[in-house]
From TrEMBL:
It comes from Beijerinckia indica subsp. indica (strain ATCC 9039 / DSM 1715 / NCIMB 8712). The lineage of its organism: Bacteria, Pseudomonadati, Pseudomonadota, Alphaproteobacteria, Hyphomicrobiales. This is Transcriptional regulator, Crp/Fnr family. The keyword Transcription applies. Keywords: DNA-binding, Transcription, Transcription regulation. GO terms for molecular function: DNA binding. GO terms for biological process: regulation of DNA-templated transcription. Residues 131-205 form the HTH crp-type domain. Residues 1-73 form the Cyclic nucleotide-binding domain. InterPro entries: cNMP-bd_dom, cNMP-bd_dom_sf, HTH_CRP, RmlC-like_jellyroll, WH-like_DNA-bd_sf, WH_DNA-bd_sf.
Length: 219
């Protein structure tokens, strides 16, 4: 039986030799990932959550969130920040690249997370180019529903694992604007809060309309 994740593989007997190439590092909530010396690292999230983002002196743009089991390489220009208390496994990239051919589970994990980052980046570019903030939020909620296999019908619950600030950073807007638009969508009857992490679909067709609106007609 094959391990379901790279972390499971590293904890298995077959992955023991590769596990010896990794060491652990803990990051507190909000802490930035600091590169060790000048070596590119492969980062495996063992526990917690990391934000991958681009930044200039005036603003930041979140590309993706890495959750438990996800893998990332620090050779990119992106920064990493823990948004939960996190435990990481780190290994020099050149060593892991040398071992890729021997460990299919490692190849699959690296390809999966790179595909996720690329897909998120393309979605972000599309949202920023073609959709206003309300449309971006609607599109994100619909993507969450698809991932969670929640039907697009009245009464369906959509779990939102991000707080408003994290959602705003992911959608390329400010916390205030994201909060204002979410409240407007609730006031319009399209969605309703259900506890801290869930929204109930009330008028799905309204959410679908916002998600597909042209910029010139967006509210």
């Amino acid at each position: 039986m094959h391990p379901s994740t790279l972390a499971d593989f590293l904890d298995s007997e077959a992955g023991a030799a590769l596990r010896a190439s990794f060491h652990e590092r803990a990051l507190a909530n909000g802490a930035l990932f600091r590169q060790e010396e000048d070596a590119d690292q492969i980062v495996l999230v063992k526990q917690g959550r990391l934000r991958v983002y681009l930044a200039d002196p005036e603003r930041e743009l979140t590309l993706v969130y890495l959750n438990e089991g996800d893998v990332f390489s620090t050779h990119t220009r992106a920064h990493l920040q823990a948004v939960r208390p996190s435990l990481l496994l780190l290994a020099p990239r050149k060593i892991i690249e040398r071992e890729l051919g021997h460990y299919p589970a490692l190849q699959a994990a690296v390809i999966r997370v790179l595909a996720t980052v690329l897909n998120q980046t393309m979605t972000l570019l599309e949202d920023l180019t073609f959709h206003q903030v309300r449309g971006r939020i609607a599109r994100y909620l619909l993507r969450c529903a698809k991932t969670q296999k929640a039907p697009i019908e009245p009464g369906s619950l959509i779990r939102l694992d991000l707080n408003v600030e994290e959602l705003a950073a992911l959608l390329g807007t400010t916390r205030q604007t994201a909060s204002t638009e979410l409240n407007a969508m609730i006031h319009a009857g399209a969605i309703a809060r259900q506890g801290r992490k869930h929204f109930k679909l009330c008028l799905p067709e309204r959410l679908l309309n916002w998600a597909s609106e042209e910029p010139t007609s967006a509210i």
